C-alpha cells in the first residue's frame, strides 16, 4: 500500500518545480499554465526550477530553505550568480571573478562634459550591437514631482561612453533634485533640446534601418539595455520596438517573487556585487550596472532548442495540440520536455547574433 501511494505521488509530481497533485489531470493543467522550461533559474543541487533568481535564492538561503541544498550551498555556492562549484577552493576563485567592482572615478569623469560618438555603421559591424542607456530626471510641476529628463548617457557593451549630454527640458524645472542628480541650473541653460537628443538616439539605435522593418534577428538595429526603459523612452519622446529592448526591471528571472520589479540598486548589489546610487547618482554607473546584469544573464548556458518560446507557432509546446488522454499518458519529465518558456531568455541573444 505504501509503495503504491509513493508511486502515485511521484507520478503526479511536477518534474520542474516539484509541486505535487492528488490527480494527474491537475498536474496536466499545471503544466499547461506554468510555462516551465530549461531557461528557468534552476538549483544546481536538487535541479528544482524556480520562476526567478529571487525564488531560487529563497530556496537556497531564505527563511525556509531546503536544508540539504542550504548546507551544500553554504560551502560551495556563489552568493552572486547562485552557481554550485565543485569545491570550496573552486568557489573562492570563481567568486573573485564573479564579484565586480564599481566604476568609481571613471563614472564620475563621465559627467564632466558632453560626449557624442553616435554613428551609424549600416550593418558593417558583424552581429547585432548592444548598448545601454540611462537617464537622470529633474522635477517639474508645482510640487516638483513631474519627471523631466535632464541628462542621458549611452555606453557600448565594453562600457565605453558613446553619448553623454545634458538635456534642456520642455517645461520649467521647479526641483533640480541636486542631492541625487548633481544637476545645477547652469548645466541646462544651453543644453541640447529634447527633440535633437531624440533624433540622434533614434537614428543611432535604428542604425539605418527603417522602424517598420526592424526585426529581432539578422537586422542592423541595436539592442537597447536599461532599467525602466519605457519610462526613459517616453520622456525622451522616443519610440523603439520592444523586441529590441532588454529591461532589467521587467525581465522575469530578475523580478521579485511577487512579480514586481527590483530596484537597480538591489540587483547590482545582489547579482554583481557592489553598491551604486549612493549620494549623487551618475547615469554612467547605471548604464554599466544594467549592461553587466544583461551580460551575466546572456552568458547562461541553456539547452539549445529550435523554437524556445511558447508563442512560437512552429512547435507543440503550448499543449493545445495534444489531447488530454495523450498528456496523461506522459511522464512528468516528458511533459517538461515539450513545455516552453513564456518569456524571451536573454541567452538567446548569444545564439542568435
The major β-sheet equals: 8 strands, mixed
Strand content: 5-15%
Question: Would you list the SSEs in sequence order as H and E?
Answer: HHHHHHEEEEEHHEHEHEHHHHH
Assembly level: single chain
What can be said about this structure in brief?
By secondary structure, the protein is of the alpha/beta class. The protein has 15 helices and eight strands. Strands 1, 2, 3, 4, 5, 6, 7 and 8 form an eight-stranded mixed β-sheet that branches.
Can you walk through the features of this model?
The chain has 353 residues and is of the alpha/beta class. The protein has 15 helices and eight strands. It has helices at residues 2-11, 24-34, 53-61, 67-76, 88-98, 105-110, 178-181, 185-189, 194-206, 229-235, 264-271, 283-298, 324-328, 332-338, 347-352, and strands spanning 115-116, 130-140, 146-156, 161-168, 173-175, 192-193, 223-226, 245-247. It is globular. A hairpin with a 5-residue loop joins strand 2 and strand 3 (146-156).
Draw up the topology in text.
Blueprint: H1 2-11, H2 24-34, H3 53-61, H4 67-76, H5 88-98, H6 105-110, E1 115-116, E2 130-140, E3 146-156, E4 161-168, E5 173-175, H7 178-181, H8 185-189, E6 192-193, H9 194-206, E7 223-226, H10 229-235, E8 245-247, H11 264-271, H12 283-298, H13 324-328, H14 332-338, H15 347-352
Parallel strand pairs: 2-7, 4-6, 7-8
Antiparallel strand pairs: 1-4, 2-3, 2-5, 3-4
Amino acid at each position: 500500500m505504501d509503495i503504491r501511494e509513493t508511486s502515485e505521488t511521484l507520478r503526479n509530481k511536477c518534474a520542474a518545480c516539484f509541486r505535487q497533485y492528488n490527480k494527474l489531470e491537475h498536474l496536466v493543467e499545471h503544466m499547461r499554465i506554468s510555462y516551465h522550461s530549461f531557461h528557468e533559474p534552476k538549483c544546481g543541487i536538487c535541479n528544482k526550477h524556480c520562476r526567478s533568481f529571487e525564488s531560487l535564492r529563497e530556496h537556497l538561503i531564505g527563511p525556509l530553505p531546503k536544508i540539504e541544498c542550504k548546507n551544500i550551498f553554504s560551502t560551495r555556492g556563489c552568493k552572486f550568480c547562485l552557481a554550485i562549484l565543485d569545491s570550496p577552493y573552486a568557489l573562492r576563485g570563481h567568486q573573485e571573478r564573479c564579484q565586480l567592482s564599481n566604476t568609481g572615478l571613471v563614472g564620475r569623469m563621465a559627467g564632466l562634459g558632453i560626449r557624442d560618438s553616435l554613428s551609424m555603421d549600416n550593418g558593417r559591424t558583424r552581429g547585432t550591437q548592444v548598448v545601454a542607456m540611462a537617464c537622470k530626471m529633474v522635477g517639474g510641476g508645482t510640487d516638483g514631482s513631474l519627471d523631466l529628463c535632464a541628462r542621458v548617457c549611452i555606453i557600448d557593451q565594453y562600457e565605453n561612453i558613446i553619448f553623454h549630454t545634458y538635456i534642456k527640458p520642455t517645461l520649467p524645472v521647479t526641483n533640480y533634485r541636486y542631492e541625487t542628480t548633481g544637476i545645477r541650473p547652469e548645466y541646462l541653460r544651453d543644453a541640447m533640446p529634447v527633440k535633437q537628443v531624440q533624433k540622434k538616439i533614434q537614428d543611432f539605435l535604428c542604425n539605418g534601418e527603417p522602424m517598420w522593418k526592424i526585426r529581432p534577428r539578422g537586422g542592423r538595429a541595436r539592442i537597447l539595455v536599461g532599467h525602466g526603459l519605457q519610462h526613459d523612452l517616453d520622456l525622451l519622446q522616443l519610440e523603439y520596438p520592444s523586441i529590441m529592448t532588454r529591461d532589467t526591471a521587467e525581465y522575469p528571472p530578475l523580478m521579485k517573487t511577487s512579480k514586481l520589479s527590483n530596484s537597480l540598486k538591489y540587483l547590482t548589489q545582489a547579482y554583481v556585487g557592489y553598491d551604486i546610487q549612493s549620494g549623487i547618482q551618475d547615469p554612467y554607473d547605471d548604464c554599466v550596472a544594467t549592461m553587466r546584469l544583461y551580460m551575466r544573464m546572456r552568458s547562461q548556458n541553456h539547452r539549445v532548442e529550435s523554437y524556445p518560446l511558447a508563442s512560437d507557432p512552429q512547435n507543440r509546446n503550448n499543449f493545445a495540440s495534444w489531447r488530454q488522454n495523450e498528456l496523461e499518458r506522459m511522464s512528468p519529465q516528458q511533459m517538461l520536455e515539450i513545455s516552453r518558456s513564456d518569456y524571451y531568455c536573454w541567452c538567446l541573444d548569444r545564439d542568435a547574433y
